């Protein structure tokens, strides 16, 4: 039976960068959509777009395509976005999948969930760049894509785009805790993911906020969409199935 997946990218990414993963899922007979969120599209005003606008763009995408009964997958920053969208339209979501993603509580922003050195770094970059932040290459190479060789690290870095910093600083509003939601929830954890330091881990620090959830783990860094898309696709389907 065909399932419908919506893959929501992380910061600095676009939906297009999720396509190699999507293609592997499609080979198993499923339908996969890879939208690009407001703030990461060509010509978007990075100074004006926050979390609310990004989440609304995803909600609009689901409505315009009349998508329902979906497996909604969020990567990293995408966890903030899917958390808001399920709050807006829970009736369209069959299962939430957080892939090394932020799991917020009401009133938190993404920066509340990151270590101080990241906040200091991005505060400075945004102040000099009109509200847009670029990820410095050394951080990308050592912390985000540590399982790649130098060639892949450089090639993938060249595909990233400036990200609107307001999406990191705007608090989320949630009508109820994610743990209270009735649909299925999964957390997909890459064991070598050190985009968040292991002293402030993705799992279990953030995953346990989902309440009852399915844990799926695999080998790899924060950027498995570049380094091992087929492995990631297999694990997404494991996390997304009933």
From TrEMBL:
<dbReference type="InterPro" id="IPR000073">
    <property type="entry name" value="AB_hydrolase_1"/>
</dbReference>
<dbReference type="Pfam" id="PF12697">
    <property type="entry name" value="Abhydrolase_6"/>
</dbReference>
<dbReference type="GO" id="GO:0016787">
    <property type="term" value="F:hydrolase activity"/>
</dbReference>
<dbReference type="InterPro" id="IPR029058">
    <property type="entry name" value="AB_hydrolase_fold"/>
</dbReference>
<feature type="domain" description="AB hydrolase-1">
    <location>
        <begin position="6"/>
        <end position="233"/>
    </location>
</feature>
<protein>
    <submittedName>
        <fullName>Alpha/beta hydrolase</fullName>
    </submittedName>
</protein>
<keyword id="KW-0378">Hydrolase</keyword>
<dbReference type="InterPro" id="IPR052897">
    <property type="entry name" value="Sec-Metab_Biosynth_Hydrolase"/>
</dbReference>
């Amino acid at each position: 039976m065909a399932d419908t997946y919506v893959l929501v990218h992380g910061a600095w990414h676009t939906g297009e960068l999720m396509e190699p993963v999507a293609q592997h899922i499609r080979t198993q007979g499923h339908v996969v959509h890879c939208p690009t969120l407001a703030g990461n599209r060509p010509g978007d005003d990075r100074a004006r777009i926050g979390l609310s606008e990004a989440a609304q763009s995803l909600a609009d995408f689901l409505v315009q395509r009349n998508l329902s009964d979906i497996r909604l997958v969020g990567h990293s920053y995408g966890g903030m976005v899917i958390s808001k969208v399920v709050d807006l339209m829970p009736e369209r979501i069959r299962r939430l999948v957080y892939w090394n993603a932020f799991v917020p509580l009401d009133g938190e922003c993404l920066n509340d969930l990151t270590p101080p050195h990241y906040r200091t770094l991005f505060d400075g970059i945004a102040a000099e760049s009109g509200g847009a932040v670029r990820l410095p290459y050394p951080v990308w190479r050592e912390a985000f894509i540590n399982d790649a060789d130098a060639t892949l690290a450089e090639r993938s870095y060249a595909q990233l785009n400036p990200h609107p910093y307001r999406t990191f600083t705007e608090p989320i509003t949630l009508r109820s805790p994610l743990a209270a939601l009735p649909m299925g929830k999964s957390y997909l954890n890459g064991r070598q993911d050190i985009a968040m330091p292991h002293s402030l881990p993705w799992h279990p620090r953030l995953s346990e906020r989902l309440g009852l959830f399915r844990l799926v783990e695999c080998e790899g860094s924060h950027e498995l969409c570049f380094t091992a898309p087929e492995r990631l696709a297999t694990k997404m389907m494991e996390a997304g199935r009933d």
